[in-house]
Protein 1
Amino acid sequence: MDLIRELTIKYDSGKEAGIAIGQEQGRQEGAEQKAIEDAKSLLIEGDSPEKIARCIKLPIEKVLELKSQLEAEKK
């Protein structure tokens, strides 16, 4: 009986750890998506990619990629 209880406890704590990891990944993905949306909005408003990268803390390469995407969408 002790073995079953021990395995159940290990399963439950592993399950909780997995849920916590998934929640953290979801938060990170949500924050990244928000930063991308904000960067796009600022690019549309005419702010410089350098300023956007600095303020939003996105890599300049990502901001330049977003700028290219927006320019391609205009065409």
Protein 2
Amino acid sequence: MVDDFPIKNSKKTYRLQSIDGEGNCREEISFSNELAMGRAQGDYILDDPSVSRIHCLITTTDESIRIEDLNSKNGVFVRITEPYTLKSGDQFRIGKKIFRVVEK
């Protein structure tokens, strides 16, 4: 389930933006605490055969937002093998969709 409010922690608030090849925002995704993404399971479903059933998990702490590949077949571009701390402006790709982290 995707909540109707941004990620909130004690210092920062984030949203994810789905962007096109030119960096333009196509969709903005708001959630709190964590967001599971996948082709068949999760809070945000991607209709893309290159995305695993449950692909990755994005979580927040008081100080950061992290992305973790959940043993997906095609990874999170650039393939990560351990949880990775994201910062505002970072971009990542899952399947054919590119996302950008935005501090609000």
Protein 3
Amino acid sequence: MVLLLPARCADSPMILGLLQPTTEEKMKEYRRQQKRKRELWGRAKILERRFSYRWLEQQLFEAERRARRGKTHTTDVYIFELRLVDNIKQLAHDIWGYGYKPTPGIKFVVKRPVPREVYAAPFRDRVVHHFLFDLVYPWWDNMFINNSYSCRYGKGALYGMEMLRRQIRRVSENYTREAYILKLDVQGFFMSLNHKKLMERVEWGLDIQFDGAPKLKRLLKYLWRMVIFTDPKEGVRLRGKKSDWDILPPTKILANQPPGTGIVIGNLTSQLLSNIYMDLLDRYIMYKLKYTNYGRYVDDFYIVVPAIQKKKLLRDVAKIRDFLKNEMLLTLHPKKLYLQEVKHGVEFLGFVVKPYYTMITKRFKNNFTRAAIEVEWGIRSLDAVASYLGRLKHVDGKKFAANLFEWVGWEYRF
């Protein structure tokens, strides 16, 4: 059984007062937990007092403003905003009366950076996704461990790369001692997520976060059920050619998955759900197996250990595999298990961390070159190049950027 506690107190023996504190340190921890519990209860009671049909409309208007950012030129947003007030009122009416159901979207295949099947929800449903996200994300973000990097404010790929670099230097004592890194991956992650397991985890969080707001909690549980259990394949429209799906393996196609498994790639709620579910694995590895130099980005995760723990780490791979299979109904990818000494360089999130410097990968170079060519041809905006340059500021890749700009015919000032 996995112990589920807030990240900052997960290794404490105090579990919300179930065990009596016996030392001064445990007493302080006990008081902090009780204070946190009172704060959650107070916030929930405030939300419960505000909870009304008018409050719901206001929250949906705010969610619509957040959902439209960067999407104002799309047809879906334009049509929704032609009758914005009427559409928001109708959406609030459906939600308040427990009659809301997600509507069919479109599906297509993206080829970069890797081929994936994407389901894009209609703008109406994206408003609901933002409404749910804004209510539950702050509490979950406080629950997540610090070494979970994907789809979180203040985190991301650069943060994950920097944390890996620090962990390697800490374990190897700045590359003066032998250290190893183990990289693992979950096979067909998004397509293998079990709906019932996901809902149990979401409800567990809602029961704690909104313990003092029973009416709001009941509504949120209903909306999450609609998001998780509604089949996105029903009525979905196809964008592109059917042959586009030929490049995808069967494990990455939602239609090939058994009933009750798989969530779509492309929704805001899917990003949050992936972190909520994988938080179970994070806690198992860090607090049960006691590997503190650990990090995860979506379903890719790593463990850094000194040479003395190498054999133990290899033995614990079987424990991780069994935990994923038995507790989470997921499969550890059999062909993506890498163990290597850190001094040889570690590839992670588009970077290669080597002793005393960090390089960019070949895929990053190819994607940057393609983006620069497409900007020069007028296919893409300068924002595409700016994003790559922003990442290059943190690694040793300025020489490559200078050569690329010279080849394209641009002036390089970095």
